[in-house]
Hints:
Blueprint: E1 5-8, H1 18-31, H2 40-44, H3 49-57, H4 66-83, H5 91-99, E2 104-108, H6 112-121, E3 130-133, H7 145-154, E4 161-165, H8 168-176, E5 180-183, H9 193-198, E6 201-202, H10 211-216
Parallel strand pairs: 1-2, 1-4, 2-3, 4-5, 5-6
Helix pairs in contact: 1-4, 3-4, 4-6
Amino acid sequence: MTVDAVVFDLDGVIVDSEPVWEEVRRAYVAARGGTWQPDTQRRLMGMSTGEWAEYLSGELGVDRSAEQVAVDVVEEMARRYAVRVPLIDDADLVVRRLASRWPLGLASSSPTRLIAAALTAADLAAEFRVTLSTERTARGKPAPDVYLAVAERLGVDPARCAAVEDSSNGVRSAAAAGMRVVAVPHGSYPLDPDAAELAATVLSSVHDLTPEVVDRLG
């Protein structure tokens, strides 16, 4: 079956934002009376805005409501992006190369505001037909909601979509939607074994994501 569309994740695939998210949220938890746990960053990856804000406010003991946590952390992330958006391994060139062959979607756990800020700063907004945040879906990753919604908006059967993901929860999400997953794990956050088995192919860098790689998924 041929691939009719490609759906990218944003954080960890196009933008090297996971370390920035971790730094910002760690500092926020420490400053607000919470306790960062050893597995916190892994658990946070893929959560929607509402989910991670509730987690920081509830389980980690931050002395702010979930709504206030979300506002504060997103504001700090937007401030960081205004200074610099760290692109990964020529990811902007990869996106443009694939956009010349396929319609592109973006399925991200970042808030809508940060998706727009990142794509605008990277001059990539025009390359994506559809962008969607998990804050607009009932469930975040690893649930398939965001990938199913992006495929629907693209007008493409999820089974005819390739997804590009870096995190275990992201891979699980795209695979649960029925997509063929290209995994590009971040060096600091390796895939869990079960997630690695769900990927159709695993690349060491997004730079290696060529049209030929996508063609071979068909």
